[in-house]
Amino acid sequence: MKNKVFGIVIALLFLGTFVTCVSAFAGDIKTRMKTRLPAIVALKDKRILGETNRGYLQFVGQEKQKEEIVMDENKDRKIVYTAIAKQQGVTVGGVEKRRALQIAQKAKTGQWLQDKNGKWYQKE
Hints:
Blueprint: H1 2-45, E1 49-51, E2 57-59, H2 67-88, H3 92-106, E3 112-114, E4 120-122
Parallel strand pairs: 1-3
Antiparallel strand pairs: 1-2, 3-4
Helix pairs in contact: 1-2, 2-3
């Protein structure tokens, strides 16, 4: 009986530690994404950067600025999309497509977006 109680206590401590670590990790991603947002908005406003039909950033045309920011943002988006997919029991691809639609709806006039066939267009 004591071993069973001990096992339950250990499991609860492990679960508590895991939840705390995941929450801290999610907070780090959110902070990083908020920090990058002004640079990303500026690149979109300059028509250098667009949003793909999978919910990721991509350079449109030959000019590339702040590539590291774009790579880091896409990496964090992938982590977030994967976590959402796991939580909701759906595919990552489904989360990506749904997020791309949300981003397209909120995009400013003139910003680059990619349609479902991969063709780039500017929002009207």
